[in-house]
Amino acid sequence: MLRSRFVSLPKTVKRSISTNIPVLQKATDPIQQLFLDKLREYKSKSTGGKLVDPTPEIVSERESELEKLSVQYGGDKGVDMTQFPQFKFDEPSVDTGLDKK
Fold first, then answer.
1. Greater confidence, 8 or 41?
2. What are the subcellular locations of this protein (predicted)?
3. Residue 81 domain-assigned?
4. What whole-number distance in Å separates Cα of residue 90 and Cα of residue 24?
5. Which residue range forms the structural domain that includes residue 47?
6. Any domain includes 97
């Protein structure tokens, strides 16, 4: 049903819709452009996933929150809770009953 409506549109309308899509993807709002510029600035400042321009208060608050999380989720002192856990699955012993006679 929708397809039949779209097919009935003149070719000039179809062309204008397709040529206006890239124009709509650019930032025309000055606030949006400032936001994108700030994101690019933070991306250039960010190195290795570390905080951008951290103050000593922010660093100490982050450390205290990580310590609270490690205590809450079972991490001991010296355990790096930012690493993915290592799983070890032991092979279960299966008794087939063939050994008994």
1. 41
2. Mitochondrion inner membrane
3. no
4. 57
5. 29-74
6. no
Q: Which pLDDT band holds residue 97 (cuts at 50, 70, 90)?
A: confident
Tally the residues of the chain: 101
Residue 80 placed within a domain:
no
Helix then strand then coil, in percent of the chain rounded to 5, is 50, 0, 50
Higher pLDDT, 10 or 98: 98
Q: Let me know if residue 38 belongs to a domain.
A: yes
Residue whose C-alpha is closest to residue 42's, from 32, 34, 33, 52: 52
What's the structural domain count of the chain? Answer: 1
Dihedral sign of CA atoms 93, 94, 97, 98 in order: negative
SS (H, E, C) 3-18: HHHHHCCCHHHHHHHH
